[in-house]
Design goal:
There is one protein chain. It is built from 13 helices and 6 strands. It is α/β, with parallel strands linked by helices. The strands form 2 sheets. A 4-stranded mixed β-sheet has the order 1-2-4-3, sandwiched between helices. A two-stranded antiparallel ribbon has the order 5-6. A hairpin with a 7-residue loop joins β3 and β4. It is elongated and about 70 Å long. The two termini are 37 Å apart.
Length: 280
């Protein structure tokens, strides 16, 4: 799996125009453009899908706004910040990609698309842009990455895997919460825990906490944990359950993530039944 971190002026400009303002200076700049070029402002709003689908060949129908932004001092200043951020992400990826790829392969157990384009935005934009048609182009910029590079890489991988399984999500849309809970366990929790050395199992979407705790014993079985090892993992992740209440599903360690999701969906009434899981 290869991640290419790059800056695309059109994608950066589009998000500058239509995303949340990251400063008063940006807000004032956008307001002036809106007052003077309302027709063009409204027309360019629909460009996002097209530019994400074909980042190399995208040409706007009307480049008036894009040119005005590109010629501004504000854009030059933003691009300097974006380039520093891009280099930080690229360096972190280059230093850790072998470990991440190895761990991701062990966790997912299905092949990923070979190449992904990470279109780097300003970190203060706090935005992830994706296309439903092309899963390999992801626009990304979050200020939290500046404080924890490994978490930043984990979140980028999460966005990539989420794009990879979008067809599965559509097919099993009625079980969206189960799929999201398992994806969190796989990437936000297990992958981050492995590459950072710090357990992250108590973090994530709070609305999924109960469901994740119910799936957790089977998740350990999926990871290949033997019964005698589960106490160690419970202590690591600060999630406790009574091992004797569970039948060891040894076949889970031989399936991929898709099949594990299907197992949880098929057996949800059996899995979501214990109400005394505890936080240590």
């Amino acid at each position: 799996m290869k991640l290419k971190f790059q800056v695309n002026d059109y994608v950066l400009t589009w998000n500058l125009l239509y995303g949340a303002s990251i400063s008063q200076r940006v807000h004032t700049f956008k307001q002036k453009l809106w007052v003077t070029y309302k027709k063009q402002y409204n027309a360019c709003n629909s460009d996002k899908e097209e530019m994400l689908c074909d980042i190399k060949n995208f040409i706007p129908n009307d480049d008036t706004l894009y040119n005005l932004v590109h010629e501004s001092e504000l854009f030059d200043s933003l691009k300097e910040d974006v380039e520093k951020y891009r280099l930080m992400l690229m360096s972190a990826w280059d230093e850790n990609k072998k470990e991440i790829e190895k761990d991701l392969k062990e966790i997912l157990r299905f092949p990923m698309t070979e190449n992904y384009n990470i279109l780097v935005l300003h970190p203060r934009m706090d935005t992830c842009l994706t296309s439903s048609k092309v899963k390999t182009n992801i626009a990304w910029g979050f200020k939290r990455d500046l404080e924890d590079k490994m978490l930043g890489l984990t979140n980028i991988i999460y966005a990539i895997v989420q794009a990879e399984i979008q067809d599965f999500e559509k097919e099993y849309g009625a079980y969206k919460e189960i799929i999201q809970a398992i994806l969190e366990l796989a990437i936000h929790n297990e992958l981050y825990t492995r590459i950072s050395g710090n357990s992250n199992y108590l973090d994530g979407d709070k609305s999924l906490t109960f469901l994740k705790r119910q799936i957790y014993p089977y998740w350990l079985m999926y990871l290949g944990c033997e019964k005698e090892d589960m106490t160690h993992y419970m202590m690591r992740d600060k999630v406790a359950f009574d091992i004797d209440n569970y039948t060891m599903e040894t076949k889970l360690k031989k399936v991929n993530l898709y099949d594990f999701m299907k197992f949880c969906i098929k057996n949800q009434k059996y899995i979501i039944r214990i109400n005394h899981l505890e936080i240590i």
